Amino acid sequence: MALNTSDLLASVPTGLLINGHWVDAATSATFTVENPATGEFLAEVAAGSAEDAARALDAAANAQKEWARTSTRERSDILRRAFDLVHERAEEFATLMTLEMGKSLAEARGEVAYGAEFLRWFSEEAVRHYGHSLTSPEGKLNIRTQHKPVGPCLLITPWNFPLAMATRKVAPAVAAGCTMVLKPAELTPLTSLYFAQTMLDAGLPAGVLNVVTTLEAPEVSQTLMSDDRLRKVSFTGSTGVGKILLRQASDNVLRTSMELGGNAPLIVFEDADLDIAVEQAKQAKMRNMGEACTAANRMIVHEAVFEEFSRRLTAELEGLKVGNGMDESTDVGPLIEQKALDNVASLVEDAVSKGAKVLTGGKKVGDAGYFYAPTVLAEVPADARIATEEIFGPVAPIFTFSTEEEAYEIANGTEYGLASYVFTEDAVRMQRATENLEFGMVGVNVGVMSNAAAPFGGVKQSGLGREGGAEGIEEYSSVQYVATPR
Ligand code: ADP
């Protein structure tokens, strides 16, 4: 059932969440949130400043001691109630994401299911985060470990998955007993604000989760990170900003989790099942309009199957409908903003100018909104910018190889190491591929692998730490070792 969008927008809090209250920015400043499909106005939200950030950290720091003392069952129950509430409000969350970020309603509903799962997963992990004990080898000590919350955290999220990137950080922080300041992306704050209200409705005590929306991300984060009450920063976004934050984190030796950029290879070997490879490659490329750090950035295809693979992938991408995500028949929504559209267009122009062939797409769509046609490029030269830069758009460049070693060499030839994909029916080659690929994640015959129960994260310049899985809660916990004589 279609929701009344003006009623929905009117129900979203637009202030800063500080110590359980929705308040205006100290300066009373606001900023505008727009729909990338139409440019239409959606809401005015509080434009927080460094001063507001300091107030938010006061609240988080004041709440930390008592929150750390709550039982894990209490935290688990709050997360489980939040999971139920997000599902009750699924259509509201999906509609908000489509309105402010552009993805199709079908994709937004998928994100609600995926994003909510972090709440359920960490409600289960909260009560099963075991320490261990042993006797020291020489027999003189009993060694026991217990977990403590790291302390107040700064959580910085991007715009591409407005709900899931928030739940993937907030849920393990809550489970571990941390308090936090969430700074959502300025392009998509509404989903986070609605989510924060949902956490309050689920019973999260005042001060545990504080939210600062802002147009001054550098000042806000610098203020928080230079305050020695903050103990951790968890960031998802570009590698460039991640490096700045890592430098700033060194001053107070903060714990850091960094989910940064990717340049995912998708290797199709000559023995791949092409029905599976084409369908999964489409998903790996087109999920979220290609605006995902796990998106297949480079299709690396054996020359024996290149022709069939590229023909079939082209047909699949031509079958996708581009349009406003609010239209139920839309498969591919707009890109997030003009800058993103210009960047995708310039990567394609650069590749074409160096000899790449456009098999489909290769152009903007329509006059309004930031739409780009699903695009397949063949014969892409290795020196094209698109071979090394993150595309973040619906463009599939295809490179070819002849030997297995060459495929790994091309795949690993990047400073990134987040997701990778391999298509083969040969079990021995599957294993060899996982050994050869320098990536934090390998999808074998599958194009979408994000899951709350799995450790998401990268190596090399794709980041530090893991989100989700049994690993996710460790990022928010410190191990304390307790020694007793034996
Ligand atoms: P993208 O290019 O995907 O927008 P960014 O890394 O620019 O990724 O943004 C991701 C998040 O980081 C957003 O919430 C943004 O506001 C925030 N951000 C950007 N620059 C800084 C900075 N210098 N310090 C802290 N946060 C920042």
UniProtKB/TrEMBL annotation:
Question: Where's the Aldehyde dehydrogenase domain?
Answer: 22-482
- A GO molecular-function descriptor: succinate-semialdehyde dehydrogenase (NAD+) activity
Q: Check the record and name the PROSITE patterns matching this protein.
A: ALDEHYDE_DEHYDR_GLU
Name its GO BP terms in alphabetical order: gamma-aminobutyric acid catabolic process
Q: Which domain of life is it from?
A: Bacteria
Which residues are catalytic? E259
Keywords associated with the record: Oxidoreductase
| Entry-linked PANTHER family | SUCCINATE-SEMIALDEHYDE DEHYDROGENASE, MITOCHONDRIAL
User: What is the similarity comment for this entry?
Assistant: Belongs to the aldehyde dehydrogenase family.
Protein name (record): NAD-dependent succinate-semialdehyde dehydrogenase
| Species annotation | Corynebacterium falsenii
